[in-house]
Amino acid sequence: MRETASPTVRVIVPATTANLGPGFDTLGMALDLYNHVELTETGEGFVVDVEGEGAASIPRNESNIVLRVVRQVYELAGRKPAGLRLRLRNEIPVARGLGSSAAALVGGAVAANELCGNCLSDQEILEIVTSFEGHPDNVAPALFGGVVVSAMIAEGDRTEVVSRKIPPPYGMRAIVAIPDFPLATKRARNALPAVVPFKDAVFNVSRTSMVILAFIHNDWDLLAKVMEDRLHQPYREPLIPGMGDVFSAAREAGALAAVLSGAGPTLIAFARENTAEVAQAMEETFARHGVSCVTKELKPCAVGAKVI
Ligand code: HSE
């Protein structure tokens, strides 16, 4: 008798850098570094395999968040799988500010939706995954690619996530300096104040609006002027030794701007030239502050999660 193959779906999802300086919890960009999620319907049991980044720390049991989002998608689709095998092959470093959890969750949700006959829309996937993450700035670009502007709009019981995509900047490179220590987003958010000065809020409203315009118009002189923040970076600086000096070194080496990637600890510089010099300056400056890091030159990526 011929054996029927178990249905399997594979999804690749890009890394993301959230905030883009002033756009706290609002802006994000997809980058060409990927997590791979494979989901198979099986006869019984729920199995999680993890390879690559986070293999030593990511739980394999029912508490695995990707498995939880997969099961939620099945439930919403009105299906009950007898068993599931989830394989995560991760290239995105965990707890470093490059959207590894958003990528894994988006991958799981998209894979489950595909196996359930795509009964959920992208908008529903966006909202489900955002409810796991708490904010949409990594989730939206992981799902859609490009640079994405998002807002959460609460209406009664439902929180609508509104997001709009800008094509990724042409010819721009993102140089990331990834420290060898993790920083939990929760800890980095706990460092933020409950109240900020009004003038700092105004500072960020103006810079965020200008960053969006700079991306829409590929206006790099403007980007270099306005990619600044007063809402989160100053409060997080004590958690990342050398942060301010690494920003200055990256700019002196030719970067247009340098900011915290998401909640950190990764620092990200945007440059159109001298990228090797920028990477070297970031690495050396971190080293002077006793932080060892890996640098990578990444490209903004136009496409989000993809079933392959
Ligand atoms: N906007 C979030 C933060 C991104 O900065 O805390 C990290 O998940």
TrEMBL record:
It is an enzyme of class 2 (transferase). ATP binds at residues 93-103. It catalyses: L-homoserine + ATP = O-phospho-L-homoserine + ADP + H(+). InterPro entries: GHMP_kinase_C_dom (IPR013750), GHMP_kinase_C_sf (IPR036554), GHMP_kinase_N_dom (IPR006204), GHMP_knse_ATP-bd_CS (IPR006203), Homoserine_kinase (IPR000870), Ribosomal_Su5_D2-typ_SF (IPR020568), Ribsml_uS5_D2-typ_fold_subgr (IPR014721). It comes from the Bacteria. Keywords: Amino-acid biosynthesis, ATP-binding, Cytoplasm, Kinase, Nucleotide-binding, Threonine biosynthesis, Transferase. Its EC number is 2.7.1.39. Pathway: Amino-acid biosynthesis; L-threonine biosynthesis; L-threonine from L-aspartate: step 4/5. Belongs to the GHMP kinase family. Homoserine kinase subfamily. This is Homoserine kinase.
